[in-house]
Design a protein that fits this description.
21 strands, about 675 residues, single chain, about 40% helix
Length: about 675
């Protein structure tokens, strides 16, 4: 029996952070060597970082990456086979490539054939797809190396590549690699987190290993790499349709390595049994490498997944862990000293505060207090924090800012939650500032402002006067101000610009309100695996969501101003995700929500389309948000829509001919 010990690594890289990226690459190689790994797959574009954006077009970036590869990384691979991702400038084009290093030298480059150009991905803006079957040479480190659609033969072991998107398409390269007799397929990836996405990855890894009769090695990035996308790791090794090992997800470590033994003879016999297997007897594009790969008898540990990864609260667990890791890396890589949250006592700001506390709890649970303090050594006083609760007090500042329309319920909810989490909490009364602004404008206009004629303006001024004080806290403490608007509100512009949208980071702007409310109940009653629930959230969860900006006797609620949140999210899914016109959306939601009269549903559908089109300018101004599912409204990464448009007027008239498709101006909130 011929077997080989193979490994995959997840790396927490940062675009253009050369020292960090180089150290993680070399550390992963050294750990793999110490463990006896012979073949190691590292993630896509791991030398530069995946999120370099237009800097991929820089010749200096590609040259610097090539120099690090040949002069600093390659010498560390003696006795091993290692793949490393980097951009390559060739014949006036840029390619997304994986370099194969064998025993201290680069033996070839394989370029990505299928580029990711949907959702948050813009690879076709920077890279060119490599043509199938083409091979040429490229000068690297002063020497020519083959580049293209290559298969490597190393001591009789045949290796090929599927680079990330290559495995997601129908005509994936793995089928041609199988015909070329490949034993091991390496997949260096940069696959961002989205709900349930790991299930899809497992499927193509397992099916690839079975259908192609190969060992399949899947490596991925880890952490908040460039600001918006969060990478969950989730490395995998499979053979013959069986998952041999799966690495941890959402780790706070700088890298993690997973390894397993693959039985080459067993895979080859399996291929021989397949009647569908038709080998290419004279394949082209082969690189024969003179290197003897040492054998191994190292046992492969059984696959062990964390208990939460298939539990009843899977989405809630994934969300908690993804956001905690995203916040940790954002703070660390921005050299920030923590976060400031304007804690209103409502659901959205409560969710932000709880997630920041989870950032601390989960990082300390995994890494230990000392390692977390070392990661955040730039924060003054971090060395004095004696436990996770003390860290929360140092890193999380909250402020409740009341006006005469605020109530004791929200004040007590904010105070109780901040105390339960351990945050540093402040209470400010800003009514005098509201009164001052209103008086100045009344003097300028020569009339009194009143709720009958100036409803939206009087609501918004209360939200806006809260912004300067929390910005002041953030500036004084060198912390990031967190904007607290969610995706449901972003869809219809139900947020005050320069009010609750103020901030440098808007972490929950990609999450709908219905999910947030469900997640808050989960955090109150259950909590994440290995962690504790937050009973203080009861004071938040029992409330009907309200902006609390109208006089208390008005009985203001968010859903009263808009529509029921589950319905709003369903309309958004059909209208924006499905690109359906109003009439089709009405038909769809009428079937989903039979408890509402059709006339009422028609009014709500009209309200959604009108407010969505009117408020694109707000979405353009939102602070960066985390991408956690495939329904994001972020115009910079997912959902593009014109700032000025026809506002669906004709489409709304078609839905209901007797109405003109207009809405009252006061429904356009600024």
């Amino acid at each position: 029996m011929r077997s080989i010990y193979v490994g995959v690594a997840a790396l927490n890289q940062t675009p253009l952070a050369w020292a960090n990226n180089r150290e993680n690459v070399i550390s992963a190689i050294e750990e793999a060597r110490s463990a006896g790994v012979r073949v190691l797959c590292l993630p896509e574009l791991c030398l530069t970082g995946y999120g370099c954006e237009d800097m991929f077009q820089s010749l200096d970036v590609a040259r610097r990456a090539a120099r690090i590869l040949t002069e600093e990384v390659a010498p560390r691979t003696t006795g091993m086979v290692v793949s490393v991702g980097l951009p390559v400038h060739h014949l006036g084009a840029v390619y997304n490539a994986a370099a194969l290093l064998v025993d201290g030298r680069v033996v070839g480059l394989v370029a990505k054939q299928n580029l990711a150009g949907d959702g948050i991905h813009y690879e076709p803006r920077w890279f060119k797809p490599w043509p199938v079957g083409e091979v040429t040479t490229f000068e690297l480190g002063g020497a020519p190396v083959p580049i293209g659609d290559l298969v490597f033969d190393i001591d009789g072991i045949r290796l090929g590549f599927e680079i990330c998107e290559d495995a997601w398409v129908a005509a994936r390269p793995g089928g041609r690699l199988a015909a070329r007799g490949v034993d091991i397929v390496l997949n260096p990836s940069a696959s961002h987190f989205a709900f349930q996405k790991q299930t899809v990855r497992r499927r193509f890894v397992l099916e690839g290993s079975r259908a192609f009769g190969v060992a399949y090695l899947y490596a991925n990035l880890l952490g908040n790499e460039a600001g918006r996308a969060i990478y969950d790791g989730g490395t995998m090794i499979a053979a013959e349709g069986v998952m041999l090992r799966e690495g941890p997800r959402f780790s706070f470590a700088q890298f993690s390595m997973t390894a397993a033994v693959v039985d080459l003879d067993a895979m080859r016999m399996q291929r021989a049994r397949l009647s569908s297997f038709r080998p290419e007897v004279a394949p082209e594009g082969e690189v024969h490498v003179d290197f003897t790969v040492p054998g191994t008898e190292t046992p492969s540990a059984p696959l062990v997944r964390p208990s939460w990864d298939s539990g009843p609260h899977h989405d809630e667990e994934e969300f908690t862990r993804a956001m905690a890791l995203g916040l940790f890396d954002y703070m660390r890589k921005a050299w920030s000293r923590g976060y400031v949250v304007s804690l209103s006592g409502g659901a959205d700001s409560a969710a932000c505060a709880v997630l920041i506390a989870q950032m601390v709890d989960q990082s300390v649970h995994e890494l230990g207090l000392e390692a977390v303090r070392e990661s955040l050594a730039h924060v003054p006083g971090i060395d004095q924090a004696s436990d996770a609760r003390a860290l929360v007090g140092l890193l999380l500042t909250t402020a409740y800012q009341s006006t005469k329309n605020s109530g004791a319920v929200t004040r007590d909810a904010a105070r109780g939650l901040a105390e339960a989490l351990g945050g540093t909490h402040h209470e400010l009364d800003v009514e005098d500032i509201v009164v001052s602004y209103v008086a100045k404008v009344e003097g300028a206009l020569g009339r009194k402002l009143d709720w009958e004629h100036d409803d939206i303006a009087l609501q918004n001024i209360q939200a806006r006067v809260r912004s300067p004080s929390v910005w002041l806290f953030a500036n004084i403490e060198s912390k990031i101000l967190v904007a607290t608007a969610n995706r449901s509100e972003a869809a219809v512009g139900y947020a005050t610009m320069d009010g609750d949208t103020s901030g440098g980071l808007s972490p929950i702007a990609g999450i709908d309100k219905a999910f947030l409310r469900r997640w808050l109940r989960f955090m109150e009653e259950v909590g994440p695996t290995g962690g504790a629930p937050v009973p203080a959230l009861d004071a938040v969860n029992v409330q009907e969501p309200t902006a609390e900006l109208r006089p208390q006797g008005a009985g203001q609620t968010d859903e009263g101003d808009l529509m029921p949140y589950p319905l709003l999210d369903a309309i958004e899914h059909e209208a924006i995700g499905g690109k359906k016109p109003p009439a089709e959306v009405l038909t769809s939601v009428a079937a989903q929500f039979p408890e509402y009269a059709e006339d009422q549903l028609r009014l709500w559908v009209r309200r959604f389309f009108t407010l969505f089109s009117r408020n694109q300018w707000k979405r353009e101004r939102y602070a960066p948000s985390f991408h956690v599912d495939d329904k994001n409204l972020d115009p910079k990464t997912w959902c593009r829509f014109p700032i000025l448009s026809g506002g669906f007027r004709e489409e709304l008239q078609e839905m209901d001919g007797e109405m003109d498709g207009e809405m009252d101006d006061d429904e356009c909130d600024g």
